Amino acid sequence: MDQPIRFSWKFVRITLAVAMCVFPVLAFYVLSKAPNFEARSLILFQLGREFIYVPDAEGSGVKAPNPGDFQGVVNAEMLLLDNPELNREALEKVGIQRVFPGLPEDENAIRQAVLWFQAATRVELITGSYVVKVAVRHEDPEIAAELTNTLTNAFLERRRRLHATRESANLRVRLQAATTQEGEITRQLSVLLGGLDPQFVATDLDKTSEDQANLARLLRDSRTKLAALEARRQLYQKRFGTGDQMLETEIEIREELARVDYIERAMVANRSKMEHLSKLMPAMRPLIELRDQQAERIAGLQLRLRDSEALSQGTSEGNVRVIEAAVAPLRSTSAPRRVQLAIVMVVSLLAGLSVAGFNALITHKETTPRTPGPQTRSREGAPSSPAGRSKVPSERVNLMRHRAVGQDRS
């Protein structure tokens, strides 16, 4: 069996030598590396019409649809912060030479700077909220804060421009379609009513109905009066000396008959007019309702288009706003020098122990003697010969023979 490795002064010397060689290199690297500063900015996402619109379904008996997981929408918005074009825009605004001094001004170097900037940028969603944290690390705290603010402002500007342009274009298309539809409805009404105003037709129908009712009342009164006059004439016919009253009654009867005839003719004309207008109303009322709905829709679209254009031309951030702007950090994110040197010392000792242990293991294997193998038995089960038990290497046998020959000669 192998013997255990023994720790000696040689092991200690190798460990210290390797540690003393590794420690200065690592210490020089740690001390020469500039500390990193991390500046952060917080962006709040609020639920609004730009993401999900849920209509009010109270009192309608219809359940409003589920708006879904808003966190997924926020995660999708966060992908825009990792856009290389957006990162390059932020770098160019701050100045690539300020961020990375001495970098060549060619396209490959700019792409490498964008990759470095993406590696130094951290975007994460704070758990339990719709607040996104944007953090940028740099050796200069002022540049770190400026990069963070520039990146968030570029994100908000691109997002505002994207939503405002898309919404304005959609609103213009919808407004044009609604205006065209309203013109078509107005044309159908004009053809149906012969160029008359629908409001005038509705008012005329109401007035004609009222006139028809008044004429029916006048006709009823006239017929009642005519019946009374005829009864009076019959009474005067049975009496003597009532010629004058008879003549007056005849005149009143003729006047009342003429009045009844005029009222009847007016009622016939009104009835035909009412029938014509009543035939128009079933086709006119849906068109009027559609035109009113289109007018309300056009007014709403015009209002939304005005708001969208004002939003695209203004500085409002909409439903996404910065709740904390980045400032120059006072403390670096790197560990203190003492802690870094202690870590370097531990790493150096571990490297020395590894090299010394590997060296001791190799030495131990080289100095360990070989043990003879197990005794071989014959086929019958008897032990082998002594020559088989202890096989001596051929070199030792030759050496022993030379020694024996020398003794015989002496």
From TrEMBL:
User: What one GO molecular function would you report for this record?
Assistant: protein tyrosine kinase activity
Q: Name one GO cellular component term.
A: plasma membrane
Q: Which residue windows are transmembrane per the record?
A: 12-31, 341-362
**Organism, per UniProt?**
Tritonibacter multivorans
Asked if the record carries the keyword Transmembrane helix, the reply is yes
Which PANTHER family does the UniProt entry name for this protein? FERRIC ENTEROBACTIN TRANSPORT PROTEIN FEPE, TYROSINE-PROTEIN KINASE
Keyword hit for Electron transport: no
Q: Which UniProt keywords are given for this protein, alphabetically ordered?
A: Membrane, Transmembrane, Transmembrane helix
Q: Where is this region: Disordered?
A: 365-410
Fetch the InterPro entries from UniProt: Bact_polysacc_biosynth/exp
Domain of life the protein comes from? Bacteria
State the protein's name: Capsular polysaccharide biosynthesis protein
